[in-house]
């Protein structure tokens, strides 16, 4: 029988009530969604750094700005 551990106590999955099994399923779903969203955030943060670096490279250099105003 599969065991699950909650708060350092082990429970036999087959012996849980249908309500407890439902709550466990919901908890597993939410944990999976949090992991998925954290992975998405990591992708967006990486893209943000790349866009920021590209923007900095596209900006005129300070010398160009000074010459342009003279």
Classify the secondary structure makeup into a structural class. Answer: mainly alpha
Compute the number of helices: 2
Poorly predicted runs are: none
Largest sheet: 2 strands, antiparallel
Q: What number of structural domains do the residues give?
A: 1
What order do the helices and strands follow? EEHH
Share in helix: over 70%
- The rounded distance between the terminal residues' Cα atoms is 81 Å
Whole-angstrom Rg: 26 Å
Beta-strand proportion:
5-15%
- List how many beta strands DSSP finds: 2
What is the typical, i.e. mean, pLDDT?
93
Gross morphology: rod-shaped
Biggest sheet: strands side by side, in what order? 1-2
Keywords:
mainly alpha; 70 residues
What does the model show?
- The protein is mostly helical and 70 residues long.
- The protein has one domain.
- It has two helices and two strands; from the N terminus they run ββαα.
- The chain has a two-stranded antiparallel sheet with strand order 1-2.
- Strand 1 and strand 2 form a beta hairpin.
- The longest helix has 41 residues.
- The mean pLDDT is 93.
Compile the SSE list and pairings.
Layout: E1 3-6, E2 9-12, H1 18-58, H2 62-69
Antiparallel strand pairs: 1-2
Q: Gist?
A:
The protein has 70 residues and is mainly α.
């Amino acid at each position: 029988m599969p065991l699950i551990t909650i708060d350092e106590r082990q429970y036999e999955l087959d012996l849980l009530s249908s309500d407890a099994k439902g709550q466990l399923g919901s908890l597993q779903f939410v944990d999976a969604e949090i992991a998925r969203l954290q992975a998405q955030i990591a992708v967006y943060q990486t893209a943000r750094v790349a866009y920021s670096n590209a923007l900095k490279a596209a900006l005129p250099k300070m010398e160009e700005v000074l010459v342009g105003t003279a």
